[in-house]
Amino acid sequence: MEAIWLYQFRLIVIGDSTVGKSCLIRRFTEGRFAQVSDPTVGVDFFSRLVEIEPGKRIKLQIWDTAGQERFRSITRAYYRNSVGGLLLFDITNRRSFQNVHEWLEETKVHVQPYQIVFVLVGHKCDLDTQRQVTRHEAEKLAAAYGMKYIETSARDAINVEKAFTDLTRDIYELVKRGEISIQEGWEGVKSGFVPNVVHSSEEVVKSDRRCLC
Amino acid sequence: MFGRSRSWVGGGHGKAARSIHSLDHLKYMYHVLTKNTTVTDHNRNLLVETIRSITEILIWGDQNDSSVFDFFLEKNMFVFFLNILRQKSGRYVCVQLLQTLNILFENISHETSLYYLLSNNYVNSIIVHKFDFSDEEIMAYYISFLKTLSLKLNNHTVHFFYNEHTNDFALYTEAIKFFNHPESMVRIAVRTITLNVYKVDNQPMLHYIRDKTAVPYFSNLVWFIGSHVIELDNCVQTDEEHRNRGKLSDLVAEHLDHLHYLNDILIINCEFLNDVLTDHLLNRLFLPLYVYSLVNQDKGGERPKISLQVSLYLLSQVFLIIHYAPLVNSLAEVILNGDLSVFSSKVEQDIQRSSAKSSIRCFIKPTETLERSLEINKHKGKKRLQKRPNYKNVGEEEEEERGLENTQEDPDKAKGTEGSSKGIKASGENEEIEMVIMERCKMSELSISVVTEQNTTDEEKSAAASGSEMTNWSRPFLDMVYNAQDCAEDDYYALFVLCLLYAMSQNKGIDPVKLERIQLPAQHAEEKSSYNHVLAERLIRIMNYAAQPDGKVRLATLELGCLLLKQLVLSKSGSIIKDVHLACLEGAREESVHLLRRFYKGEEIFLDMFEDEYRSMTSKPMNVEYLMMDASILLPPTGTPLTGIDFVKRLPCGDVERTRRAIRVFFMLRSLSLHLRDEPETQLPLTREEDLIKTDDVLDLNNSDLIACTVITKDGGQVQRFLAVDIYQMSLVEPDVARLGWGVVKFAGLLQDMQVTGVEDDSRALNIIIHKPASSPHSKPFPILQATFIFSDHIRCIIAKQRLAKGRIQARRMKMQRIAALLDLPVQPSTEVMGFGHSSASAAQHLPFRFYDQSRRGSCDPAVQRSVFASVDKVPGFAVAQCINQPNPSPLSSPSPSSSGSGSTGHCDSVTASSTSTPSAAHSPSVDDSSAPEQPPIIFSSQMMLVDETSSAASKSGKNPEVETANLSPSLIPAQQPTISLLSDDNADALSVESLTLVPPIDPHSIHTFSCIPQSSLPSEVCGVTEGEGSDQSQQADYDEQ
């Protein structure tokens, strides 16, 4: 039953509460958006395959840190074991946009001296009439931190796929160029099983995947 | 798992006509379940869908219809779940079930709903179900499920999980079994669960945790950490050419994770848990492994050891992260005052006291290896766990064990199995340790004076002595700490020692009295009258080494040393450093000056480096916590940048880096020395933000030389401005409508960072780019101005170009001379560049002092709008002083006294004129000639007149080229600037700082007469500038001279 994937990337989704992290993740992993009348359904762990090129699949593991922020050791470990992340803010909530900087600072403190590849996501773009953050300023902020910017809506399924696949592609490029390397003891990137292709890093991964339980 | 991409509901059955969120639908689902009690290949999908739907209905019911839950309970529907689970139904069903349960618990918001779900014991049954944990996905969802449950824990819900009567707490005990799972995400989840449990303030539950699980869990945890540490140490020791760095940084990060976790537990502040944890940490990890390794480096033996650098590094991390007083106090006590008897005598005492008990070996870490003690505990813990009725995953545990054994390389773990119940003993043991420590302190307190004098013993001695019969008087750990500061060879260990001392002094948990005992003051220590001389001397020695040409001290070490020394000798009332120490420090500073002199070059790049280094040093002060997160310092100091190690954390490579290093050493020691002598820094940075003209400043331009131009920016914007060139800056101003003769600065940029190029097909235009100084040596310079300037004719264009180009060179030159002055260098003759004479140069060298003094005065005066003239008006003598300094640069400034209006300028002119003899022929007389006398004063704004200074005087500049240098518009000068070739040679020789500072009236005889007061621009034309008394006089003088 093991799906065939080239790499596994571990991603985190961060941002202020109520910006719609869980909805975005759920939309992506299940293609479904919980309607307003519906209970918000969230869970903190998802995975999905993404095909970035024909035949090249990447397994994404997505972690939502919701509810665990109070313990420094926990958030630290989350951040440290992720290769990439979506930094969400709500375009109808200026405060959440202003906090983007704090989120980046916080991750920086935790992952020193590593780095996480972030994409800045302006969420709830279906609510354009209530917009409080212009696309231009968001793009400017993203550029200042060397991030890409994308606007999404989980409700209308706008750019949800794109946000994840773009990020995946960027990370994939970095991995291919060797700027991100697979390391034992770090779970941000793992190499997977590729039929008919010998993968140099596979050994490392196998030993890593050994389960002691 | 991947089948889940289809919709949640409606997948299995087509009759979705009725509302899926209803009690009816749940009843239907119930019906489906009853029909399919056995899982087969055929109904698997149906069952999964059914479970999903049920979950969704439950979540809906939670918020909308309580009858849903009633029905769910009534029909005992959880049993079906369990039933499905217990059939070996395969991975697919397991994952689905776990995930839907997860979602269910995550989304239930009403307490009552939650109670319903938890009330029968089914959840616990699921928790203890023996899943196939070798499947990564199942493992992930399982632990996620436990974590979700743990997030729901509170004083009420805890009773559903913790059974007081059967002493059963499956959620917790099952979770902690995975504490050392190879997947870090699983470990994180386990940690979250434990923290969520400890956080619940339920005494019986916490007692259970302490009595039944704390010892095994914490001892295992500590062992787990310890084995990571040993792995880390191996990684350091086997490293060749930094190849292990990737792995090493992971292990370091792992250790940090551990410490943060421990700290998170400790700050929950559950007292009796903390006791057990502290005991284990101290007595099974920190003391026996970290601290013990401080002294026993060369001794073989079976006790596990790590290398000195690793031990120092890790201890620093401990003190940086953990601030729990009982723990850090005991640890600090041993390091600062303890000796090896902490280990050895403890053994004896234990044997005596507890000879009756067979379990003695359990807590004699000193005689046993860490591994063995841990092993015992581990087995004991396991046994207890195995007794748990619910425990099913036996095979799992064995594997876990194997994992542990693999990482440890303990030759004889056979002994380790003799564990016995010892949960109760934890606290007693703790007391014993503390007693031992207390005894030590008493003794060492007596001997403090002796010891501080005595620690000249080198490492060998202390190591040899540490064998068995250690005197009670010595403090080997402290000795080691002092000795490792020796940087004669390298600063490999010194850096860690400094970090350790720093971390201890910053630690909020450590009783300041403890630190006081070695006279290491805590961060905000009160008054003190003495300090630790030995430490101070060691620190100063490090500084001395750092200032040597071949010194092997890294910048990080030096910076930290400076930090510590300041902390050591600065008290509230100021510095208490002894003269002899200060003298030594001054010696080191002197050395650093000598060191930097070797690199001082006239090249442009030196100035840029000098200022860059200052910027990056002040903008990024050292963060010790970050420093201690970087694994790269664990490997021997290297010089090659190819390792990617930060510059401050390695040795310099190549001349450029050696220069940069010398510059930084100079800065640090200079700042330290000033600090300790309680003197303010008056020279650095070379350009102070507050001295510069800024946008929107309003300047008195009455005496300024301005060139009108049109500025076309890159984005096509076009504005009319007047270009003014100051000593350090060029600015673009527009007239102030409110005040006659004043202008508002619209842009100001440093001349030194400017590039001026002509425009090919337009002789009236210049391209000007000004870069913002790069914030780091690697970042690209960012242009703050990029524009084309168009002047009214090509002559003005040329003049502007000249003025800017020369201004640039002059600005740089001036700064270089100030650096030279800082280095006590005789200023080299630099005739070729600007045509300053030697004399002027030597005069200039002293001037920086004046520069700042005056600028201060200027800025103190609220009435002064950056206009020096304000102060001139108040202090008549000043005008003259300014005049002297009226330097240089603006090459083609107008010599017209009328345009410059004030007497001071008149003086300047004459002064400048005096320097005819100096080789400033660079001022291209030819151009000057061509710029001929077409000089109508330009009139702009309502009443204000400013004279465009290309100046009629140009005609005379042929014979008197210095004229142009004279007229730098003084009103644009924020403060007076030193300088340059204004006086004739003979007089300059006699010039001293005093003479400049004290505003010497210019001796008319030493000044060559300035004879070219231009007639073309009449004084009367020159707007309504009121001239001061002094100016009248001086002007008069000028005329007289003529």
Structure report:
The complex is a heterodimer of chains A (213) and B (1042). Chain A is of the alpha/beta class and 213 residues long. Chain A has a single domain (5-189), classed as Rossmann fold, CATH 3.40.50. Chain A contains 7 helices and 7 strands. In chain A, strands 1, 2, 3, 4, 5, 6 and 7 form a 7-stranded mixed β-sheet that branches. The longest helix of chain A has 17 residues, at 160-176. Chain A is globular, with a radius of gyration of 17 Å. Residues 32-43 and 196-213 of chain A have low confidence and may be disordered. Chain B is of the alpha+beta class and 1042 residues long. Chain B is built from 44 helices and 14 strands. In chain B, helix 12 packs antiparallel against helix 13 and helix 14 (271-295) packs across helix 23. The longest helix of chain B is centred in the N-terminal third of the chain and has 35 residues, at 203-237. The radius of gyration of chain B is 40 Å and the shape is globular. Chains A and B meet through strand 2 and helix 2 of A and helix 2, helix 5, helix 8, helix 11 and helix 13 of B.
